[in-house]
Specification:
Shape: globular
Strand content: 15-25%
Protein name: Sigma-X negative effector
Number of domains: 3
Order of helices and strands: HHHHHEEEHEEHEEEEEEEHEEHEEEEEE
Keywords: Membrane, Transmembrane, Transmembrane helix
Number of helices: 9
Structural class: alpha+beta
Organism: Pallidibacillus thermolactis
Radius of gyration: 44 Å
Oligomer: single chain
Amino acid sequence: MNNSRKDDELIKILRQFPSIEDKRSMEEVYLRLQSKKENTRKHHLRNKKFLWPSIATIAVLFLSLFLVITQYNQQKENKGIPDKFEIAQDDSSNQTNEQKAELFHSFEDDSNFESNNKKLYQEKHAIYKNDVHEEDFVVTIGIPDTDVMNIVPISVIVNKDRGSHWIDYYNYVYENIDEEELGLYDYYPYKGTLKMENNQITLDLLADHQYDSGTSKEEIFFKSLNFFKYQNVDTIFLKEEANPGVNFSHTGKIYEYQINNTQSGYLIYSTNNYTYFTPSPNEYESIEDALLDMKKENQIYNLHPSIPNQFNFTVDVSNTEQLVLIFHNNVHLKENHETIRMIEAILLTAKEYGFDTVQFKNTNVKNIGPFDLEHPIQVPIAPNPVQMDMLE
């Protein structure tokens, strides 16, 4: 088929369509085209107005991210965060949450190690020779616990300007100590006068002293007098209203009280805020038995072990001045408060049995807190130190 024939057929088909007439003038058509063009331009402007805030938001986000990264890098440089921690953090992307938490926990423990170690050095439950200066005097008194079952020894370093005789220092502590603040029973001062009379220690009680109003009160009263042993006193003379002798309803009339020098180990007594060393109610002739008793819980007196039960040891008492304590089973002592309390409890017990020093063997460590375990350790002067600002 030639092209001429195709054109004729196409013209014939087009002529069959209905006729279309446009009655608009040329001006009207022109205005309509201009209106469409204007609408198209406004549509583009609206799109641009929507686009600019989006671009601005994205820019702010990128700027904030840049500032955060910069600040983090500066903080890392200032704090000296090690590179290996940063690497560990990057490599932990496949770790579980628990593993990540353990990683950060370990890092925190490492950073606090030095401060924790300093606390171990500062936390002592006894007074030692190096703690006392020439102008100081150590006063040790026994205060009942709140159940009036145990007598807790409390030691205070007093400046010697408080008086001219050690009796003056004791009276000062009796009058100023706040037993309730220490979590103990309000017991002092004595209902009477403690004084030096004819080179004798005399306690002159008031008529209404009430130390004889029950067996337990009498027992606690006499136990409190036992702490004068720290001043090498062996006898306390008793009076009532300046008359010799005090009549106790259960014990009878007593003119003088002989200090009880029975020996025992030290256990732990705890209040809500304080932990104290307290003599065990069980008395033993040998230090070996006393040390074994220190591994046991005493539920009746609410006393806790001062030596963990997992530690086994033997003692050598062949030298009357130095106790040798030998640990078994290749023990490795840990640097913590529990170990320091154990060492101090052993030192205090050694003092009770007349030893001057203690040598620890087979500990597998050189130092624990303030203690050099490679050399003999001097026994303390007294247990449970209390600061003077807690008394006034």
